[in-house]
Each structure stands twice: as structure tokens, then as C-alpha cells.
Input
Amino acid sequence: MSDLPYSINTENGVRYFSCKLLDGVDFLSHAFGSRQGGVSEGHFSTLNLSAAVGDDEANVLQNRQLFCRALGINTQQVFGVNQVHGNNVLVIDKQLLAKWQTGKLKQAISADAMVTDQPGVALTVLTADCLPIIIVDPQNRAVAMVHAGWRGTCRGVIQQTLNRLAECYGGSPDNWLIGMGPCIGDCCYEVGSEVVNIFRESYPDWHIYCSYKGDKWSFDLTGANISQLLKAGVRPENICKLNMCSACHPEDFFSYRKTNGATGRMMSLVMLK
Ligand SMILES: [Zn+2]
Output
């Protein structure tokens, strides 16, 4: 057993990461995907899971099957949203789920977070540098999946998701477990002073995750979200972070920044069994 807070798993060549903190929750499936184990080529090599970035459609479809099979879930269970860097939280209740399962939901709903207490639906986000965050309420058997880039972080998407979880299912953040996936690290995430100024105006703790190195600002995306989680009452020992920079590890992760946008997307997933 390694000292790392996460596990590295390989199943039929599909590589994914999981938080040990969440591995112990028996009613849960979760994964932070990598780019390894698929059939796509070139920029999308190999496990690109987005059909909206110019990759061959048949390859994306096959990648979805390979990824799902590795996790022991059905592709029909994969639920995604149209990610727009906002703070809208979609509640997936029985009604919405039934509508989706019967093919009556004609297009993806725009949102950057999802919450549910319904088993059998895998909440997913697609990323290449942005931060995927899983929230688990073990008492009330509810989960959330969040997509956070700097814009969503600034708009408080994580806080909105915590609020929505509490409203919908009861419970409070001091009992919740958090898994934070791979994203661009402050080693590689240079931002303009206009980004720093936006945080400075709204967040008194901005200096914890915005730092001036050399003559440039860098942004700690994971740190900014941890700061909001702690402020909301999440306990530090209940947060598991991968701490792997997507731009520093091109063999494992797609990175939008590193490639000027010519790249695929990884999938992160959480599901109540
Ligand atoms: Zn880096």
C-alpha cells in the first residue's frame, strides 16, 4: 500500500485514478480518467471522451465503451451536461432521470455541476486542465460532480453545489467527502492580472492561491477550490486531491494550455450503485 492518497488503476489498458478516501465508500463508483487506454489518434491519442473536439466519432464511441467497461458500468448510464464555465447546478431527480432514460431529454442541459441521490446514473464531466471535483454525502447517500475552471471557481460553482446538496438532501458539509481530480497546477497555470483582480475583488483569501512568480501571476486552481470548501465547513481530512498537473504529465493527461487547445478530454465520473 503506497502513501499516496489516491490509487492508480489499470483495467484492460485503461488507466484511471481514484481517491482512497472514496474507495472505501461501498455504495459508490468513481474515477478520474486519464488519456491512456483508448483508440483515438494524433492530438486525441488515445482515450479522448469528447465528441465535440473534432475527433473521429466512431473512435470516441469506442473509447466510451472501453472506459465504461473498465469501470464496470454501462455506457447508457453516463450522464453529462453542456459545460459552460458557470455556476448552475443541475439536480437530477427521479423525474429528470426518467425523462433522460426514455430519450425525452433531447439535448444536454447547460450546467457545470450535478447533484443526485438516484442510483445507477453516472455523473460525468469532461476536462483538459479544468478541475473535476466529486462530493459525497455518505449519510444521505447523495453525490455531486463539479467542473471548475477559473471562471467557475470565481463564480462560486463549488459553493453553489454544496448549497444545493444541503437543500436537496439535508446533511452538512462537515460530514462530506471530497475528491479532487487532475488539473493544471500552479506550476503551469499562468494568468493575467485581470484574472487576479477579479478574485481580489470578491475573495479576501485570493493571495493564498494567486501568486506572483518572477514577473507573472500564477493561479492554484485546486487551492482556490479547497479554500472555498474549508470556508464552507468541509474538514481538511475529508479532502483527497490528486495533485497531478495535467500540463506536466502529457503521457497521462490531456492539457488544453500545453497544446493551445488541440487536444482531447478526460472523463471523471461518480455514481451511486
Ligand atoms: Zn505543471
About this structure: The pocket of zinc ion is lined by residues 185, 187-188, 245, 247-248 (CB under 6 Å). The chain has a mean pLDDT of 97.
